């Protein structure tokens, strides 16, 4: 936990904050205080109002009349919040997607986050920019040079660059508020702990941090205080030291998590066989997946995990090697071939890649199986809506009804809709890339149960996840990709987070 810097009052005080959207009250009379030097976690289920609160604090949305936001000495009516006011008060947000440019250097990324250092004539003053970047690299302890391209950095270091860029104009004495929205969602475990250590150091320097995450272990590990939202209402603010994971779940869901033991069936026939497949950074991988199996793929970012899924789905051709599906040679030229063969892919960036934001939830769920809804030469609206409502219920999607447009849903609820679409197709082979990213604790276990249920019915599933605890929990076997190869396969008692971490990094131990 961070050392507190003593300060008179809270750094941030939100009072009587309400935000109404047509048909939804996203926040209802919220009061919240955050102190300097405090890591304050904000938790809540999908659609509970976390993003809405962040967007008001950063001036993207305005609150309803009556709410007041105070940041440091700046006091603003919530209805008058603007990005300029928020920036002026020192509010900086680092989103999960970081908003960085991979093909630009650290210095160039810093420059794009503020005014370029310019000579009088208007040209970029590279010497000044590089010097300033060097200072930032030192201050934020980033392992890079000003000229290093972001692409060459680990995901953790990229996150640090994004944070340093956000705070670059702040000087040595941190004021304002740093908001981190799911900062570790795509970080491997060892980089998560490095980032958390760094955040603790920023906080002990006096930085106020609002930390939004669905990862409960991190919240327990890093935060001083936890505020929980449920359906737009602040349940309360608590000392983290008084909470454990079950306590947090209670706060988020208003009840304990129902855990059912996942039913398994013995592996059946081989569904998919890969023979010496070369794709992306992978030089040669061979494996089989059988009916009833949930097989995990572990590897660091850039290890070829996602490329492998996309190759099986026909999105990326293999450079060499072959695939077999149910014993027959399988050469998908495009995704359509894979879908026809009974393969479903839930991509990592599912909302950007696979969602129709200005269409209703029901249509988003029904789209791949649209032929099912033809009745006497017409598409049956009623059946689509019925399927949509059933999908919403099964996946705990929170929205006014199945006709609500996807754009009006919270991020996590959009994710659930795309998952509902593919799982309701009853595929033969299910390919899932980070299936629970951004999804709340209640729906997370539900999703894994649905995956397990699909495999009990005879399907096979291949799952990529950077949360190794989760991978260990759901998978029967785990394939570890490292340096372009299938480094090893973990089975039985070796399917645990510690072993998966060891093998992806090859720390100690022999293979
Ligand atoms: N632009 C909008 N129009 C209408 N309703 C919206 C809009 N943005 C958010 N909402 C609604 O406000 C509520 C709160 O959404 P918000 O995005 O703040 O949730 P969240 O806690 O961030 O969820 P998640 O964990 O899924 O990201 C939800 O019911 C959502 O459907």
Describe the structure.
The protein is built from 17 helices and 22 strands. The chain has helices at residues 50-57, 83-88, 106-112, 126-139, 155-167, 189-204, 216-222, 245-253, 305-312, 335-340, 350-354, 361-366, 381-394, 411-423, 441-456, 468-474, 497-505, and strands at 12-21, 24-34, 39-44, 68-71, 74-77, 91-94, 177-181, 208-212, 225-230, 233-239, 270-279, 282-290, 294-298, 320-325, 328-330, 343-346, 374-375, 378-379, 429-433, 460-464, 477-482, 485-491. The longest helix has 16 residues, at 189-204. Helix 3 packs across helix 4 (126-139), helix 3 packs parallel to helix 5 and helix 5 (155-167) packs parallel to helix 6 (189-204). It starts with 11 loop residues before the first strand and ends in a 6-residue tail after the last helix. The protein is an alpha/beta fold and 511 residues long. Helix content is 32%, strand content 25%. It has a six-stranded mixed sheet with strand order 6-7-8-3-9-10, sandwiched between helices. Strands 16-19-20-13-21-22 form a six-stranded mixed sheet, with helices on both faces. The chain has a four-stranded antiparallel sheet with strand order 2-1-4-5, covered by helices on one side. It has two domains: 10-253, Rossmann fold (3-Layer(aba) Sandwich), CATH 3.40.50; 270-356 and 429-505, Rossmann fold (3-Layer(aba) Sandwich). A hairpin with a 2-residue loop joins strand 1 and strand 2 (24-34). Residues 1-7 have low confidence and may be disordered. Residues 21, 24, 26, 44, 46-52, 398-399, 408-413, 440 line the site of adenosine-5'-triphosphate. Pfam families: ABC_tran.
């Amino acid at each position: 936990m961070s050392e507190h810097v003593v300060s008179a009052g809270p750094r941030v005080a939100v009072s009587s904050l309400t935000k109404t959207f047509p048909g939804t009250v996203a926040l209802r009379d919220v009061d919240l205080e955050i102190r300097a030097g405090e890591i304050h976690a904000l938790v809540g289920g999908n659609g509970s109002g976390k993003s809405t609160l962040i967007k008001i604090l950063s001036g993207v949305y305005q609150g309803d009349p009556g709410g007041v936001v105070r940041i440091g000495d700046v006091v603003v009516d919530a209805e008058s919040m603007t990005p300029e006011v928020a920036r002026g008060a020192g509010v900086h947000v680092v989103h999960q997607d970081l908003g960085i440019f991979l093909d630009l250097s650290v210095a160039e990324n810093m420059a794009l986050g503020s005014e370029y250092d310019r000579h009088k004539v208007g040209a970029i003053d590279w010497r000044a920019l590089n010097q300033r970047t060097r200072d930032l690299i030192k201050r934020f302890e980033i392992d890079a040079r000003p000229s290093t391209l972001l692409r060459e950095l680990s995901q953790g270091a990229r996150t640090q660059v994004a944070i340093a860029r956000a705070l670059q104009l702040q000087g040595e004495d941190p004021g304002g508020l740093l908001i981190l929205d799911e900062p570790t969602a795509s970080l491997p475990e060892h980089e998560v702990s490095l980032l958390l250590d760094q955040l603790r150091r920023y906080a002990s320097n006096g930085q106020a941090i609002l930390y939004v995450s669905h990862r409960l272990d991190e919240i327990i590990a890093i935060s001083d205080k936890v505020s929980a939202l449920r359906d737009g209402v602040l349940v309360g603010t608590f000392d983290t030291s008084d909470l454990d994971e079950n306590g947090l779940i209670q706060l988020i869901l208003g009840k304990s998590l129902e855990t059912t033991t996942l039913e398994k069936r013995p592996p059946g026939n081989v569904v998919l066989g890969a023979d010496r497949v070369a794709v992306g950074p992978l030089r040669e991988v061979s494996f089989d997946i059988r009916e009833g199996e949930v097989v995990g793929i572990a590897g660091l970012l850039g290890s070829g995990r996602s490329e492998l899924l996309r190759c099986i789905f026909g999105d990326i051709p293999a450079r060499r090697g072959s695939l077999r599906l149910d014993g027959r040679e399988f050469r998908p030229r495009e995704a359509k071939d894979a879908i026809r063969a009974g393969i479903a892919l839930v991509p990592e960036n599912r909302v950007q890649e696979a969602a129709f934001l200005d269409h209703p939830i029901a249509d988003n769920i029904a789209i791949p199986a649209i032929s099912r809804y033809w009745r006497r030469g017409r598409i049956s609206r009623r059946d689509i809506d019925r399927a949509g409502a059933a999908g919403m219920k099964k996946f705990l999607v929170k929205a006014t009804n199945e006709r609500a447009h996807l754009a009006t849903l919270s991020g996590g609820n959009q994710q659930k809709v795309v998952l509902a679409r593919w799982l309701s197709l009853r595929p033969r082979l299910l390919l899932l890339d980070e299936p629970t990213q951004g999804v709340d604790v209640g729906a997370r276990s539900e999703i894994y149960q649905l995956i397990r249920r699909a495999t009990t019915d005879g399907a096979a599933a291949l799952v990529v996840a950077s949360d190794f605890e989760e991978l260990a929990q759901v998978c029967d076997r785990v394939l570890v990709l490292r340096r372009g190869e299938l480094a090893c396969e973990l089975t039985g008692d070796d399917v645990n987070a510690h072993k998966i971490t060891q093998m992806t990094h090859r720390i100690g131990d022999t293979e």
